[in-house]
Design goal:
It is a single chain. This protein is of the alpha+beta class. The strands form five sheets. It has a three-stranded mixed sheet with strand order 2-3-5. The protein has a two-stranded antiparallel ribbon with strand order 1-4. It has a two-stranded antiparallel sheet with strand order 6-7. Strand 2 and strand 3 form a beta hairpin. Helix 2 crosses helix 3 and helix 2 runs parallel beside helix 6. The chain is elongated and about 100 Å long.
């Protein structure tokens, strides 16, 4: 059974990594957010924050129902983050089990965090994506690991292509890779170092305990733990041949077995079957029903009334921290991807997964830090100096799992206004009277041209009369794609700036 579990884990991890690779232009596979749609935590907090049923999370509801009957099978068999921790935990020395009292206190942390997130979601503040293990996996693998992988792959193919012996074969493999999983352009994401440190920090917690995150901090695990307090069908049984050797207790990676194997902490078993394999007497088994075995004693997680009240109070008290703060009040230029819901709804719907950032072919979408306030961290923010919105692309809406970015056809997307371009005349080459520059007008993808050039007679700084073609923005036609800002040849800050709109609109 354990071998079957490991094979299943590896298969799900491989599938997860394939979906990460396939989340790139031109998006040949349309279901890249499959694992995100499995998260029952995202489903619950999303529905609480928007106060309506979200169809995209129906798979998560099925998994939640399955957990009630089978227990936390998702954590032990499916979760890519859990599999990652199982792999990285092997790099650290073997850990000693901790005292039962301390163990129960640590386990209670994730339940306190779950209550905290649910309180905030009920009040319209959706930050579950910060701590959801699927979001952490997608964000870390997609925006950090993939970025370095793409860079190394490009360099490797470049070197191989120069070798006469394998050059032709390497070029064929490179063309295949470019069409299927390598990025259209090398992505570089602002703030990715914070995502990397968060990811690495969780992995290094394995120094102290196996699956430290899953045991003590994962709010999705806490939700599954609550749903599987007493699984209705699949249960762990212990026979009378058990001699209390405590081997199962020492091998349990979740610390779910205590008191020499006679007691189980409810909701903590992830069906890894390590105890079954390690038991020298064959006294442990997982069965749907078994009259020759008996159930162990059950112990509950130690969540005191004080801890429960603390988590509720912390959620209520922290609302002003997210809603009334200097960082949020100073926000003056928010640009969201085309198809985004209204400014207020966006923060309630976005799960901070990074899928839209990963799939963007021009590296236009980046994870925000504190540009949108504290609650806006890791939501998508568009930086037109680093990239632009490709006129014939609407992939961000295709991969969004939560509906924060709605699906648009290419024709609908071309008419969606996400911002307006404005000239900084004190920086524009033509406006300060040096020379003609037509880059912004040439780059504008709108057929009618949202940037036009007008002949104007001027006297330059040297006192000579000249005719310059000065650019103007036709606001009625501009959609805010940002290519003018990206391609502006002025060093440093661009001479043309995209000003975002809180409420996107359609051009006539």
């Amino acid at each position: 059974m354990k071998t079957t579990r490991r094979i299943t884990q590896i298969l799900f991890l491989v599938l997860f990594l394939i979906l990460i690779l396939k989340t790139t232009y031109p998006l040949n596979f349309k279901h890249t957010h499959l694992f995100l749609s499995m998260s029952s935590l995202l489903a619950l907090t999303q529905m609480l924050s928007v106060r309506s049923y979200v169809h995209s999370f129906e798979l998560a509801i099925i998994i939640a129902i399955g957990t009630i009957f089978l227990g936390r099978f998702f954590c032990g068999w499916v979760c890519p983050f859990g599999t990652t921790l199982d792999i990285t935990d092997r790099l650290f020395k073997k850990k000693k089990n901790i005292e039962k009292k301390t163990q129960k206190k640590l386990i209670s942390i994730k339940y306190i965090l779950l209550i905290f997130l649910l309180v905030l979601a009920t009040l319209g503040i959706q930050i579950a994506g910060w701590f959801d293990p699927i979001c952490i996996s997608v964000r870390s693998y997609g925006l950090v690991v993939y970025t370095y992988f793409n860079f190394l792959a490009e360099k490797t193919f470049l070197i191989l292509g120069r070798l006469s012996i394998v050059g032709g074969v390497a070029d064929k493999f490179y063309n295949f890779a470019k069409e299927n999983f390598l990025a259209y352009t090398q992505p570089v994401f602002s703030g990715s170092i914070l995502i990397f440190l968060f990811f690495i920090g969780i992995l290094f917690l394995g120094i102290f305990l196996r699956r430290f995150w899953c045991r003590n901090l994962c709010p999705l695990g806490a939700l599954f733990g609550f749903l599987s307090l007493k699984p209705l069908v699949l249960k762990r049984y212990v026979s009378d041949t058990c001699d209390s050797c405590s081997l199962c207790e020492s091998k349990c990676k979740m610390g779910a077995i205590t008191e020499e194997g006679k007691t189980e902490i409810t909701g903590e078993c992830i069906l890894c079957f390590d105890c079954v394999q390690k038991c020298p007497k064959g006294a442990i088994d997982y069965k749907f029903t078994n009259h020759n075995y008996k159930l162990p004693k059950f112990d509950t997680v130690d969540i005191s009334k004080r801890s429960f009240v603390f988590s509720l109070g912390a959620g209520l008290i922290s609302v002003p921290f997210f809603e009334v703060n200097f960082l949020k009040n100073k926000v003056n230029n928010i640009i969201h991807p085309p198809g985004s819901v209204s400014y207020e709804q966006f923060f309630a719907k976005c799960v901070r997964c990074g899928e839209c950032m990963k799939v963007c072919p021009t590296n236009y979408i980046h994870p925000a830090l504190f540009e949108k306030g504290v609650a806006g961290m890791w939501t998508p923010n568009l930086n037109a100096r680093l990239g632009y919105c490709e006129y014939n692309c609407a992939l961000c809406g295709e991969v969004c799992p939560s509906g924060a970015i709605q699906k648009l056809s290419i024709e609908e997307k071309k008419k969606t206004v996400i911002g307006i371009a404005y000239f900084c005349k004190s920086r524009c080459i033509t406006w300060i009277g040096y020379d003609n520059c037509t880059v912004c007008e040439e780059m504008c993808p709108v057929p009618e041209k949202a940037i036009v050039l007008r002949k104007e007679h001027i006297i330059d700084p040297a006192g000579k009369k000249r005719i310059l073609l000065r650019p103007y923005v036709i606001e009625e036609l501009c959609i805010g794609c940002g290519i003018c800002e990206t391609k502006c040849p002025v060093e440093g800050a661009s001479a043309i700036k995209i000003i975002g709109l809180k409420y996107q609109k359609k051009i006539a």
